[in-house]
UniProtKB/TrEMBL annotation:
Belongs to the binding-protein-dependent transport system permease family. Keywords: Membrane, Transmembrane, Transmembrane helix, Transport. It is found in: Cell membrane. NCBIfam families: ABC_perm1. Its main location: membrane. GO terms for cellular component: plasma membrane. Residues 23-219 form the ABC transmembrane type-1 domain. This is ABC transporter permease. PROSITE patterns: ABC_TM1.
Length: 232
């Protein structure tokens, strides 16, 4: 165990090429998926937060339920659509980073939508009378809410990124864990552990742990910034 940790630290400190490649691909896939999920989830969350329509409670139930989507089920559905016999097979996206981005986006978009809806709904209830007195349109109301809640929504985005970068089930199904193509940190850890290469698995685990701690530190920093801004 001690030797494995020593080799792991050596890999990290020496900047091993394979290690860096895996980490950079993981970050590219997860950051892209997070950005897409925010582009999809934030408007949905804002519309549901400010809207009053028939069936709204059912929509809320579905949104909250989708936060717990099983990753392997999402991976399977994406696989079926992108496989050669699927409706999108002609695109040739299966076993590519793009397929992994699609799977991660589907997984975290409901999380972004549900969390942002709660944040924006609480804010909307606080400012509803003021918005009505200004005779703001629906679009202006949504824009005002998104801007005022920007720090909280950044926290939502960071939470989505943390969920994406730790994902393994869906990405291994649609990505295939192909060396130098679709191998990310989580799938590489699973593979290298099964092969007995604990040094590389531990090195990737250490980096993933640092990223997780960094995300949590960023969330805490954003919350503190938001609290300070509230009293400015």
């Amino acid at each position: 165990m001690g030797d494995a940790f020593g080799l792991a630290f050596d890999l990290v400190l020496s900047g091993d090429a394979d290690l860096i490649e895996i980490v950079l691909l993981s970050l590219r896939v997860s950051l892209t998926a997070t950005a897409l999920a925010c582009l999809i989830g934030l408007p949905i969350g804002a519309l549901v937060a400010t809207g009053r329509f028939a069936g709204r409670n059912a929509v809320l139930i579905v949104m909250n339920a989708l936060m717990g989507l099983p990753p392997v089920v999402v991976g399977l559905l994406v696989y079926l659509h992108l496989s050669r016999s699927g409706p999108l097979g002609f695109l040739g996206l299966l076993y590519t980073p793009t397929a992994m981005i699609i799977a991660q986006t589907i997984l975290i978009a409901p999380i972004v939508a549900a969390l942002s809806r709660q944040v924006l709904e609480d804010l909307h209830s606080e400012y509803a009378e003021q918005f009505r007195s200004f005779c703001l349109t629906k679009l202006q109301t949504v824009q005002a809410l998104l801007w005022d809640a920007r720090y909280s929504l950044l926290t939502v985005g960071l939470a989505g990124f943390g969920r994406a970068v730790a994902e393994v089930g869906a990405v291994i199904i649609v990505g295939g864990n192909i060396d130098h193509l679709t191998r990310v940190m989580t799938t590489a850890i699973a593979l290298e552990t099964s092969k007995g290469d604990l040094a590389l698995a531990l090195a990737l685990g250490l980096i993933l742990l640092v990223i997780a701690l960094g995300v949590n530190a960023a969330v805490q920093s954003v919350r503190m910034t938001a609290a300070r801004q509230a009293y400015v």
